[in-house]
């Protein structure tokens, strides 16, 4: 399975080509510099930043480009060892072409092709000729598609432009691409505008100049009638035949949370293409999903990344507004600093602010930086911003005056700007302040040194709510106004979307009376609403969690039996480990020698040997009936996931010593002073962290775990963030990155409230 979008955040109008084992996509950049971003992949599912096409001011003039003007959709093609990109600059009213033989290097100067129309594309024929097409206004009002043969190295027209089609009956006919397949020229177009009505249609002709007949099954991609679906506005598709003969399509769409806004902007999606009755069909009869299946495609990329100032910041997918002004971005890679010299305000219409921006890629993304106010000019205002454009943004603006530091949350919406929150602090010795933006689908939260400065709704900077319309998406950026400001170390981008929180039950989630307090319950609901995935991770069997599960208003993941039995939030069993019968027989014999009794766990259930006191003790924990039969009887019909031996503390220590001697590869640990848990060599809570993180498509470095006892240690060793309860054993507290209050003082809830 692979995940959509393949290029999240502000990555609209994708066009794709394949060259020498690598796929390349270009996306639009509008008023931002450098122009036309290039992404690369060797498998279609996992993409990384490659370079940009237009990196010099002699190639790209955006000096007075209005918001969402500048560079519109581009197309990329590869022919006989050379890459070609054709695009439109709406600010200068021209379509042009450029080329390179090294996609990671410099591109040629641009060559003018045609004055009007947008969304240009190219088709290279087998005889070497190059056909150009774009949309055009026909008869003053009707949008249609025009085309002509050109010289791709000079842009020179080799014939008059001709009308190829006036479309398939929808408005805003645009995004044309032509392909030659089995004797037909297929013309793929978008109609309906780039909003809710966006869709893709197909036409074909035996002659490249037309006339083109429309597919009777149009549209071939449309979510117009899927109003409640999280993917909307599907359109602007580019098709590609892969080396194995299969076809795919890349296209733009927006992800919409339950609220109406789509502040991330238009993103790039991928779907398989099938051919039916001589016509292409995208996805599942024109429908696409957030998760889709193309054989061999598996999404593995993490959404987390950092911009390290020890590296050239231009090696990352950065954007600046209109004019690059490289002299205003002073980087000291040895000292890992970036100094911004502000010559303009980010709110000025048609301004050239000193602003270094990166795409917000998920609904739960965050950006964190360190600002050295001690090195800042006292006339300077600097900080970070959630930035759509000069008319729509929120920002933390920091200012130093002597030993006083002032932090303001400023909102700029339409033509109105206001300071809504202010924090004043005396200068610390280091003068280093941590600034952070954390996003949810509904709001942006702004922090100074981990203290909440204020919040603002996403609706205020969503493209669909702007006064003139916007084709871009929200960016996270550093900025400086009226002087110099230095940022240290780098920029940390993290996504909390699908970030798992692994929570031990007894001694961690529940208090000493085995209760889930209301405060802890509300903290879990809060974390869930912020994009975190709750994973209850316990030595208990699944039945033993039902009392907890009934108190939660959502279905969490469960990693029970120390991870031997894992269910996802849909209740599906996604992993299971079992212990062999010979090992179980030996463990039972060790139990008899040491005076311990047997508990055994299989699937959702549990059982005990014929000691009634042991049975009653486990019933008090699980509140679910078990099987009161000897282990050897149960093994005849069930596969055992976990074995547990119970007795006095001294008996348990002796059992653990003997069991580890006989089975050194097995996971054998105390889970309480009177319980010894035995799991297979591949079963630990740490292994559960690995398995669940992989299934969620995130790195274990993103995982957060909470625990209090020895069997939680493997979680602490692999998760990126580890939190010990104050009541935890000393070894767990020592291993943890953080320590919180005890389980009887709502320590779990307190940590979530303070850190999430």
Give the SSE layout:
Elements: E1 2-3, E2 15-19, E3 22-27, E4 32-33, E5 35-41, E6 48-54, E7 75-79, E8 82-89, E9 94-100, E10 111-114, E11 121-124, E12 130-138, E13 142-150, E14 162-165, E15 174-181, E16 184-191, E17 199-205, E18 213-214, E19 221-222, E20 231-241, E21 247-255, E22 267-276, E23 279-282, E24 291-292, E25 305-308, E26 320-321, E27 329-332, E28 337-341, E29 354-359, E30 365-372, E31 381-389, E32 392-401, E33 404-413, E34 416-426, E35 432-439, E36 443-448, E37 451-457, E38 475-481, E39 484-495, E40 499-503, H1 518-529, E41 532-537, H2 546-549, E42 557-560, E43 565-567, E44 573-576, H3 581-594, E45 597-602, E46 605-608, H4 612-622, E47 627-628, H5 631-634, E48 642-646, H6 649-662, E49 667-672, E50 675-679, H7 685-696, E51 704-707, H8 713-718, E52 721-725, H9 730-735, E53 738-740, H10 747-755
Parallel strand pairs: 40-41, 40-51, 41-42, 46-47, 51-52, 52-53
Antiparallel strand pairs: 1-24, 2-3, 3-5, 4-26, 5-6, 7-8, 8-9, 9-10, 11-12, 12-13, 13-14, 15-16, 16-17, 17-18, 17-19, 20-21, 21-22, 22-23, 25-39, 27-28, 28-39, 29-38, 30-35, 30-39, 31-32, 31-38, 32-33, 33-34, 35-36, 36-37, 42-43, 43-44, 45-46, 45-48, 48-50, 49-50
Describe what this molecule looks like in 3D:
This protein is mainly beta and 756 residues long. The protein is built from 10 helices and 53 strands. The strands form 11 sheets. Strands 25, 27, 28, 30, 35, 36, 37 and 39 form an 8-stranded antiparallel beta sheet that branches. An 8-stranded mixed beta sheet has the order 44-43-42-41-40-51-52-53, sandwiched between helices. Helix 1 (518-529) packs parallel to helix 10 and helix 3 packs antiparallel against helix 6.
């Amino acid at each position: 399975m692979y995940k959509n979008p393949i290029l999240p955040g502000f990555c609209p109008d994708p066009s794709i080509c394949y060259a020498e084992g690598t796929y390349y996509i270009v996306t639009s950049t509008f008023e931002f510099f450098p122009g036309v971003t290039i992404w690369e992949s060797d498998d279609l599912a996992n993409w990384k930043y490659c370079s940009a096409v237009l990196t010099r001011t002699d190639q790209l003039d955006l000096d007075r480009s209005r918001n969402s003007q500048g560079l519109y959709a581009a197309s990329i093609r590869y022919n006989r060892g050379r890459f070609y990109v054709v695009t439109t600059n709406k600010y200068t009213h021209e379509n042009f072409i450029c080329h390179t033989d090294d996609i990671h290097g410099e591109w040629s100067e641009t060559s003018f092709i045609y004055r009007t129309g947008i969304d240009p594309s190219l088709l290279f024929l087998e005889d070497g000729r190059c056909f150009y097409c774009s949309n055009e206004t026909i008869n003053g009002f009707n949008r249609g598609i025009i085309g002509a043969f050109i010289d791709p190295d000079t842009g020179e027209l080799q014939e008059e432009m001709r009308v190829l089609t006036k479309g398939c009956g929808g408005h805003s006919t645009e995004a044309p691409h032509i392909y030659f397949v089995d004797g037909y020229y297929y013309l793929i177009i978008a109609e309906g505008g780039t909003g809710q009505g966006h869709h893709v249609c197909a036409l074909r002709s035996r002659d490249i100049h037309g006339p083109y007949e429309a597919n009777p099954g149009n549209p071939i991609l449309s979510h117009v009638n899927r109003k409640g679906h999280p993917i909307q506005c599907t359109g602007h598709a580019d098709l590609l035949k892969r080396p194995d003969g299969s076809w795919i399509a890349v296209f733009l769409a927006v992800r919409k949370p339950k609220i109406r806004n789509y502040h991330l902007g238009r993103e790039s999606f991928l779907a398989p293409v099938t051919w039916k009755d001589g016509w292409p069909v995208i996805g599942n009869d024109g429908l696409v999903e957030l998760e889709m299946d193309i054989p061999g495609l598996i999404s593995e990329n993490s959404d987390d990344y950092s911009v390290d100032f020890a590296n050239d910041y231009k090696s990352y997918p950065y954007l600046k507004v209109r004019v690059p002004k490289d002299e205003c971005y002073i980087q000291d890679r040895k000292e890992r600093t970036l100094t911004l010299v502000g010559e303009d305000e980010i709110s000025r219409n048609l301004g050239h602010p000193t602003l270094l921006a990166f795409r917000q890629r998920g609904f739960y993304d965050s950006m964190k930086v360190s600002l050295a106010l001690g090195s800042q000019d006292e006339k300077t205002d600097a900080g970070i911003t959630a930035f759509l454009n000069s008319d729509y943004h929120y920002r933390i603006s920091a200012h130093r005056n002597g030993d006083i530091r002032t932090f303001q949350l400023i909102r700029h919406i339409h033509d109105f700007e206001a300071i809504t929150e202010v924090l004043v602090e005396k200068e610390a010795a280091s003068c280093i302040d941590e600034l952070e933006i954390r996003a949810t689908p509904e709001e942006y939260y702004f922090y100074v040194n981990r203290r909440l400065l204020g919040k603002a709704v996403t609706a205020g900077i969503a493209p669909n709510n702007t006064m003139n319309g916007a084709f871009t998406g929200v960016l996270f950026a550093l900025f400086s106004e009226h002087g110099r400001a230095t940022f240290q170390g780098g920029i940390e981008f993290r996504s909390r979307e699908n970030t798992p929180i692994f929570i031990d039950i007894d001694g961690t989630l529940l208090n000493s009376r085995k209760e889930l307090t209301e405060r802890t319950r509300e903290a879990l609901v809060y974390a869930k609403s912020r994009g975190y995935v709750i994973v209850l991770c316990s030595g208990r069997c699944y039945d033993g969690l039902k009392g907890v599960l009934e108190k939660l208003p959502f279905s969490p993941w469960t990693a029970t039996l120390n991870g031997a039995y894992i269910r996802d939030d849909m209740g599906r069993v996604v992993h299971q480990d079992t212990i062999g019968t010979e090992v179980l027989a030996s463990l039972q014999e060790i139990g008899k020698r040491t005076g311990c009794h047997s508990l055994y766990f299989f699937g959702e259930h549990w059982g005990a040997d014929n000691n009634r006191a042991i049975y009653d003790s486990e019933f008090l924990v699980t509140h679910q009936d078990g099987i009161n039969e000897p282990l050897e009887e149960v093994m005849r019909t069930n596969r055992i996931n976990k074995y547990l031996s119970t007795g006095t503390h001294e008996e348990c220590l002796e059992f653990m010593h003997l069991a580890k001697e006989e089975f050194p590869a097995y996971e054998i640990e105390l889970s309480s002073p009177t319980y010894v848990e035995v799991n297979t060599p591949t079963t630990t809570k740490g292994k559960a962290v690995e398995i669940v993180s992989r299934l969620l498509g995130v790195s274990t470095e993103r995982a957060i775990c909470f625990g209090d006892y020895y069997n939680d240690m493997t979680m602490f060793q692999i998760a990126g963030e580890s939190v010990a309860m104050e009541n935890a054993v000393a070894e767990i507290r020592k291993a943890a990155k953080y320590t919180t209050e005890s389980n009887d003082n709502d320590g779990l809830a307190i940590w979530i409230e303070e850190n999430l």
